[in-house]
Amino acid sequence: MLRGLGKLTWLEIKIFLREPLGVVGAIGMPVLVFVVLGRLLGRRAAARSPDVASGVSVDVAVFATILIALAAVLSLITIISIYREGGILKRLRATPLRPETILTAHVVVKLVFTAATLALMIVVGARYYPMALDVRVVSFSLALLLSTTSILSTGFLIASIVPTARFAQPMASLILYPMIAISGLFVPVESLPTALQTVARLVPLTYAVSLLKGIWNGSAWSAHLLDIAALILVFVVCTALSAKLFRWE
Amino acid sequence: MIRQPVVQVSGIRKLYGATVAVDEVSFDVQEGEIFGLIGPNGAGKTTTMECVEGLRVPDRGTISVLALDPVRDARRLQNRIGVQLQEAQLQKRVKVWEAVDLWASLYPKTVNGDRLLEQLGLADKRDAWFMTLSGGQKQRLFIALALINDPEVVFLDELTTGLDPQARRAIWDLVRGIRARGKTVCLTTHLMEEAERLCDRVAIIEHGRIIDIDTPGRLVGRHCPERTVVLTTDDRTAEGRFRTIPLVDAVSRRDSRYTIRGRGEGMVTQVIDCLSEHRIRVTDFRTVLPNLEDVFLKLTGHSIRD
Lengths: 249, 306
Ligand SMILES: Nc1ncnc2c1ncn2[C@@H]1O[C@H](COP(=O)(O)OP(=O)(O)OP(=O)(O)O)[C@@H](O)[C@H]1O
Ligand SMILES: [Mg+2]
Hints:
Chain A is an all-alpha fold. Helices cover 79% and strands 0% of the residues of chain A. Chain A has helices at residues 5-18, 22-48, 50-85, 88-93, 99-125, 137-161, 165-182, 194-202, 204-216, 225-245. In chain B, strand 6 (153-157), helix 6 (165-180) and strand 7 form a beta-alpha-beta unit. Chain B is elongated and about 75 Å long. Chain B has two domains: 7-215, 3-Layer(aba) Sandwich (Rossmann fold), CATH 3.40.50; 225-289, Alpha-Beta Plaits, CATH 3.30.70.980. Chains A and B meet through helix 1 and helix 4 of A and helix 3 of B. The structure holds adenosine-5'-triphosphate and magnesium ion. The site of magnesium ion has 5 residues of chain B, from helix 1.
């Protein structure tokens, strides 16, 4: 039972909204990038052939959602390490709040803002990506929820062990962003060198990309059981490990 | 019936790397008392407190609080104790009432948060962000949070550091109020005056060890039995008479002003008896009693501020 989870989550949402630039950074920027990219790539591709245009739009949409997820992870890690350094975690420790509750609250906050960003993108993006309208919004949102939760759990793990806030961001960026390159987002995993393919199969992002791309393109959930299993496994392992390794100060 | 002490600490030791922060520390705290740990910076007060609160695990020794083990039974204990840490922060943009409200939601039994804020003089800061509070206001908020669950034992680490004299007095009254409701208070301070006025018993701690534990009065009586009487008289026979008082060790004079030093509780009475027996007229009379500050100086060879 996670006592205080509801209150803490709501409180953290309010606190986040009070941050100067918080909302702009978390929601505004990704939407802006999405729109700008959409205009540039969409127009250029459309000039060649309609087929390519749809191919590009798929990538941009999945790319954008992955970026939101990673931004959420980074922000989770930063917040937890700031809380640790400032002694906020230490104070919370002397209460019945559990580390799981604190992490879950922050994850829920991130998911809420991810969902809000996504909703905004769908609304704004409809102009630039007519394809988006055909996409099964509910399925894609579910796939994104699963992917984000799983990727966020790797964030927990990093957040549980990074020593200082100044370390947290660069370290997490170093781990997370290179993942994009081998995740199959730009180049199919199968066409990577064998060694990198092995690495790619160990990276949760690969399964997230595969699932998101598949669902976006209309393939059935049953075609992605491996991806789903891998994402759930990552979530379970990372959550269990971080509950064990969590450092309060 | 002999009550079991609320807090029992026996032989704890805590190392940070090679630094011995606390060594062979033992003490008991009885139900309904205000117990103080006093000592200079780095003496090991916070480390001892945090071991008792279950936030640190001692390398050796045993602790029981309300007959529970602070580490093993942490969850059960957390509902029954209140903790104010020496150094703590909250989210910068959390409002005072929101913090109180969150804390209140964590415990099965709570007191009225608004009344608590009022008692601590924070009622008009209800809607202020944590980051906008002054140091003393933050301190008072943390005391409020420590009291929100109506704890049976309250731990206050440096409870009045950074407070102005008026706020300090208000906190003292509040702490006495906690005792009046039968609760137990453990606090640390390096203000001797605070320990003397507030604590039923104090432990003097230095370099991680407890030097002595007792009521402030008995500590002074035991370690500093000296008494000094300063008086003014024009009677030229006085000096010789003062020297015959049994408990007087030394008499010195400057003009018509005498400083009479002696030891033992009866010394002041003997001086007064001598004055009335010989009808010595005095125009000024003052006693100088040692206090905890002097005890500390005597026991450690230096003042607590050095
Ligand atoms: N986290 C830590 N890591 C290493 N050493 C520590 C740590 N915390 C305390 N110490 C050391 O342990 C000793 C005791 O520190 P402690 O904080 O218990 O003292 P204190 O009596 O509370 O002092 P103050 O009056 O300054 O609060 C000090 O020498 C301090 O340097
Ligand atoms: Mg201290």
